[in-house]
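agent> Task received from the user: take the single chain below, predict its 3D structure, and emit structure tokens. No templates, no multimer pairing.
agent> Plan: (1) validate residues, (2) run structure prediction, (3) serialize to tokens, (4) report one or two observations.
agent> Step 1 OK, no nonstandard residues flagged.
tool_call: predict_structure(input=
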Amino acid sequence: MTGLFHFTNLVRAGIRDNALLWMLIAGFALFPIFTHFADLPFWNDVAMRIMLLGMAAMGLNLVLGYGGMVSFGHAAFIGIGAYCVGISQFFGMTNGLFHMFISIGVCGALGLVIGYLALRTTGIYFIMITLAFAQMLFFLFVSLEQFGGDDGMSIDRADFLVIDLYEPLRLYFLIWVALVLVALGLMFIVRSRFGVTLRAIKSNESRVEAMGLVPLHFKITSYVISAVICGLAGTLFASWQEYVSPDIMHWTRSGEIMIIIILGGLGTLAGPLLGAIVFLLLEEFLPLALGAVAPAYAENWMILFGPLLIMVVLFGRGGLIGLLDKAGFGRISKRKMAVK
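)
tool_result: status=success, residues=340
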């Protein structure tokens, strides 16, 4: 009974301290009602892409924002998760739950191996090793002509028992449920002793080591968890897109996810999801705005996005979450958490 009471208090405190995160997630749950009455079904696809990239960014944020490990290779795990669907379907296995279990197992194993090797270095060396592993996997799948090579492969949406994912809203809410589970899992991890230790390692690794703890164990564990979350996002991304290619694991995709995290706010649970919303909405509307002024340059919307990102970094330390805090909306996602 005491354990249940403690668990309930933990959930309430986590929801209270991350109010913006749960407001955004609730907004995604209600969004299809708006698109239905406004007759704008296209925006459901945009919302699904936002949730998937937000989920992947939340996974990377565990090692980047909370652990201080700058990884340029997490797009590889998204790609591995997507190819778990494609290759499984190639051999006749269409069950979506099987795809998820395979993705979790493969991404977890790869995350363990890559993390074990890469995390023995720090700084620029760690960045370059993660980038090297990601590019190795990228060129591996480019060379696999049996699975489409550079052209990729078309796939069908997975079967989830009696759930027909060709009904758009069923896939939408499957992605939404996965986002909720990832958010809940990360909320508990960040508030746990493990999460506090991970942030302590980011602040001063030598002091944590002096306390008798082994920082490498915590860093590898967080890296594996992060890889699994990105793999899950990749699995659902494949079913949403009905196509998978090596481009999904190119290093530029890792950079895109990092931009999303920095834009939203490093080391916050709501930051990656908020960053994904703003990033993809700008991707939709900036070409239209630029096309109205200079149609020949409509595809070069990053010309406008770059200065916007620089201004957020310069004037809002902590990203958009930092700007919200400065605007008086309270410490939305950075409240200090005591560990009992």
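agent> Step 4: summary for the user.
The first helix runs from residue 2 to 17.
agent> Done.
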